[in-house]
Amino acid sequence: MKTDVLVVGAGFSGSVVSRQLADSGKTVVIIDKRSHIAGNAYDTNDKHGILVHTYGPHIFHTNSQEVFSYLSAFTKWRPYEHRVLASIDGQLLPIPINIDTVNRLYGLNLDEEGLKSYFESVRDPRDPIKTSEDAIVNIVGWDLYKKFYKGYTNKQWGLDPSELFASVAARVPVRTNHDDRYFTDTHQAMPLDGYTEMFSRMLDHPGITIRLGVEYQKIRQEYSPKHLVYTGPIDEYFDFCFGKLPYRSLFFEHEHLPTVQKFQQVGTVNYPNEHEYTRITEFKHLTGQEHSGTSIVREYPKAEGDPYYPIPRPENDELFKRYQKLAEKEKGVTFVGRLAQYRYYNMDQVVGAALSASKSILDEI
């Protein structure tokens, strides 16, 4: 079968590229091995009528007006500022660490300048900063590092923070004010009708054909596209010829509590030092739904399973670069997305990368 473009993967990357190319008059076939669109952002009503994120919480935030405006063509928004608490020594404390975190944890009454002086007195200066351990102890010292970061990182990645790039820790900043929002981006909101509905509108175009429940390797011979857009794992595309790229996976334990209206104070509570799971998210905080019960999800990181997070370590980066060199030699193929580019992208970064890739593809075909 002929088509201008075959797109592998119906998550953010594949869907954005598909819509951009279809709007430019190209015929597009988009496939996904799962039975649904929207990738890991897929949400659906559970059997109790509560909108839940099947693959864990997805909180949209961005400083990019271009990305926000683009997605706004396919959804209205519910303003939402995500807040997270961490269970530490019997208390629920704000994370990222801020002035209230430190004051409540240690029974202090510091102001902003006092907190800066406190951090200066407890920090363990590191230069250069190479690892996540370096990045944290350099700012807040060892006690806060052990209480908030070390255990969580060990669970999340199966590695010590000293074994991971500093960029991992940099995703959770440290603040000296009272700001308890998890993100500080200009735009913070949730798709009003959910992510799946947003994707459905994005892919609703006469130039786009959707095929679900099919694997690329099994149907690749059916098509002769002018261009291929691949958003899956780059090592899988090349039949793991250099070995498998390491990914961290997750197991999601969903639970409905029929007689509980509100399970926790905020959208997400982290458990750095207790339980096998890393966090619990309560979806009604995110969606604003009214319901007599509530639905939550616990996240258990694991080594095997669907690839969710590229593991940011030097040796993994070197292995990816070997695959990247092969990718650069592939004619008529664009690799885009978290798995294809082996990057720990946020959703808005994925959209930005997909918009950029779309322009390059249109220049080519």
From TrEMBL:
Q: Which UniProt keywords apply?
A: FAD, Flavoprotein, Isomerase
Q: Which cofactor does it need?
A: FAD
Name recorded for this polypeptide: UDP-galactopyranose mutase
Into which family does the record put it?
Belongs to the UDP-galactopyranose/dTDP-fucopyranose mutase family.
One Gene Ontology molecular-function label: UDP-galactopyranose mutase activity
A matching Pfam family: NAD_binding_8
- Give the UniProt entry's GO cellular component terms: cytosol
Q: Where is the UDP-galactopyranose mutase C-terminal domain?
A: 147-344
* Ubl conjugation listed as a keyword: no
